[in-house]
Design a protein that fits this description.
This protein is α+β, with helices and mostly antiparallel strands and 63 residues long. It is built from one helix and three strands; from the N terminus they run E-E-E-H.
Length: 63
């Protein structure tokens, strides 16, 4: 089973989404969006970026 994007209402005014792993744990939470359509577009953008995103190691330790 793959991860799932969940749309939800924030404070009954805004919309947001969270990405849940296959085990149900929350992996990421979005910012607030003014409408549902914007939140859906945010999911599309997150999908696009995740598929092509590079890893940037900003750790200060050697491990």
């Amino acid at each position: 089973m793959t991860g799932t994007f969940e749309l939800y209402n924030v404070d009954r005014i805004f919309y947001g989404f969270r990405l849940k792993a296959a085990d149900g744990s929350v992996v990421a939470v979005s910012a607030r969006y003014p409408d549902k359509e914007s939140a859906v577009q945010g999911i599309r953008t997150a999908r696009e970026c995740a598929a092509t995103g590079l890893i940037s190691d900003c750790c200060t330790s050697g491990t």
